[in-house]
Amino acid sequence: MTSVHAVEFVFLLLLLFVVAFGALARRLQTPYPLVMVIGGLLLSFIPGIPRIGLNPDVIFLVILPPLLYSAAWLTSWREFSYNLVSICFLVFGLVTFTVLGVTYAGQWLLPGFDWRVGVVLGAIVAPTDAIAATSIANRIGLPKRIVDILEGESLLNDASALLALEFGIALLTEGTLPTFLGGFERLCYLIAVGVAVGLLVAELVHWIEHWVNDAPLEIALSILTPYVAYMAANWLRASGVLATVACGLYLSRKSSHFFSPGVRLQAWAVWETLTFILNGVVFVLIGLQLPYVMADVPDGQLRMVLGYGLAFSALLILLRLIWAYPGAYTANWIRRRLLHQSITRPSAKSIFVIGWTGMRGVISLAAAIALPRTLAGGVPFVQRNAIVVFTFCVILVTLVLQGLTLPPLIRWLGLAGVAQPDTEEREARRAILQAALSHLEDTRRHQGEEFADVYDDLEHHYRRRIASLGDTTEAVEGTETAALHNKYIALSRELLEIERQVAVQLRNQRRINDEVLRRLERELDLGEEELQAKSK
Question: pTM, whole model, 2 decimals?
Answer without folding.
Answer: 0.84
